[in-house]
Amino acid sequence: MAEAGIGVDIVEIARMSRVLEKTPSFARKMFTEEEQRYCDQAPRRAAHYAARFAAREAVLKALGTGFAKGVGRKDVSVSRDDHGRPIAVLQGKALQIAQEQEIVEVALSLSLTSDLAVANAMAISDDARPRPKQQREDERARVARSFREARSILDELERVQDESLASLTGETLIEHGGSDETHSEL
């Protein structure tokens, strides 16, 4: 399908805070247990919930759907990789939609300000994924090429030098099967 979809969403942290206070079951209904553990231990609990809510919306926008087409509340969630970076986790209908679109990766970026949580998502198919740059020639091949070029230059300099010496001494340069021989003219 060779496409990439982009999605962005912004959530007001104060609004998420009010929702969490008024509806204590909201976090349990909307977020996975992993997300709840992470957010509940964070110093800015509402901010992290807001970022994860924004991430859901951004991912679904990148896939070209919202909470429609049978996508459930927990079909998109946020986890973290070994380095602590956020990663989108798809399951259920969201995963099915991504597979149908041949999406191989959903890149995710989360940002927080004092007031806002922002999420950016990019759904990438294998055909749309940037290709790695051509690998430079390895060091050994580069050195070998450099020596061949230097040898060629030295051979040319030696030839010019031999010709110059021959013209100064009156000798003639005769080539025999790849070896150079000089003969004196009498």
TrEMBL record:
NCBIfam families tied to this protein: acpS, pantethn_trn
Biological source species: [Collinsella] massiliensis
Biased amino acid composition, Basic and acidic residues: 173-186
CC cofactor: Mg(2+)
Alphabetized Pfam families for the sequence: ACPS
InterPro entries referenced in this protein's UniProt entry, alphabetically: 4-PPantetheinyl_Trfase_dom, 4-PPantetheinyl_Trfase_dom_sf, ACPS, Ppantetheine-prot_Trfase_dom
Gene3D superfamilies: 4'-phosphopantetheinyl transferase domain (3.90.470.20)
Taxonomic lineage: Bacteria, Bacillati, Actinomycetota, Coriobacteriia, Coriobacteriales
Enzyme type, top EC level: transferase
GO MF, one annotated term: holo-[acyl-carrier-protein] synthase activity
Family membership noted in the UniProt record: Belongs to the P-Pant transferase superfamily. AcpS family.
Domain 4'-phosphopantetheinyl transferase: 5-101
Start and end residues of each stretch annotated as Disordered: 165-186
Gene Ontology BP terms: fatty acid biosynthetic process
Entry keyword set: Cytoplasm, Fatty acid biosynthesis, Fatty acid metabolism, Lipid biosynthesis, Lipid metabolism, Magnesium, Metal-binding, Transferase
Catalytic activity entry: apo-[ACP] + CoA = holo-[ACP] + adenosine 3',5'-bisphosphate + H(+)
Protein task: Transfers the 4'-phosphopantetheine moiety from coenzyme A to a Ser of acyl-carrier-protein.
EC number: 2.7.8.7
Residues involved in Mg(2+) binding: D9, E57
GO CC, alphabetical: cytoplasm
Compartments where found: Cytoplasm
Protein name: Holo-[acyl-carrier-protein] synthase
